[in-house]
Amino acid sequence: MDAKLILNKLNKHTPSILGSEQFSKFAVLLPLVQMNEEVHILFEIRSSAMNRQPGEICFPGGKMEPKDKTEQDVAIRETVEELGINRNAISDISPLDYLVSPFGMIVYPYVGQVNNLDCITPNQSEVEEVFTVPLSFFLEKEPKVYHVNFEVQPEENFPFDLIAGGRNYNWRTSKMDEYFYVFEDKVIWGLTARILVHFIELVRKSS
Predict the structure, then answer these.
(1) How many CA atoms lie within 13 Å of 135's alpha carbon, on the beta-carbon side?
(2) What is the pLDDT of residues 164-201, one digit of tens each?
(3) What is residue 165's three-state secondary structure?
(4) Contact at 8 Å (CB) between 33 and 42?
(5) What residues contact 105, with CB distance under 8 A and at least 6 apart?
(6) Could you say which DSSP state residue 142 is in?
């Protein structure tokens, strides 16, 4: 095969994250609400009947489905379904940085305004409760940070004889920061807190 032909074909390639076709795609909305002349952030508490992460605090969101054209469509659809609101109750949507999880997920966060809290009727099969926290709380209070360490554990039949160093190979380890916010009796952590930390950084930069 001709090298120029190969390079011409590759010139038309649009780069993405290597292996991303094997990742599950999720999208969430960080909802801003206006309350008594102050901006609040709305959170959900997942239903205790949910198989995945029951009782945890999160933003509205979910997995991308074939019917979804874009990641933003996912965030909007899931917010509408979970909060029981109309699409026109969500406005001024903007993307945040997407997140590649070490657990095989790509999460696409968005921020937008939810107008009229009175129209919210949470889907009880997914959402046990909704609550809001003043944005000022997160601007004034730093999260506590803890670390989760990841170690490499090759499977039993791993071909150590094919790599330099064999069983003494110096594997790279990694760690992940876990952020925790405690507001009254609510604990916000995990992916929700990581997205929140990123959002607060952007807000501070724009102030």
Answers:
(1) 19
(2) 999 999 998 888 999 999 999 999 999 999 999 999 99
(3) coil
(4) yes
(5) 23, 24, 25, 26
(6) P
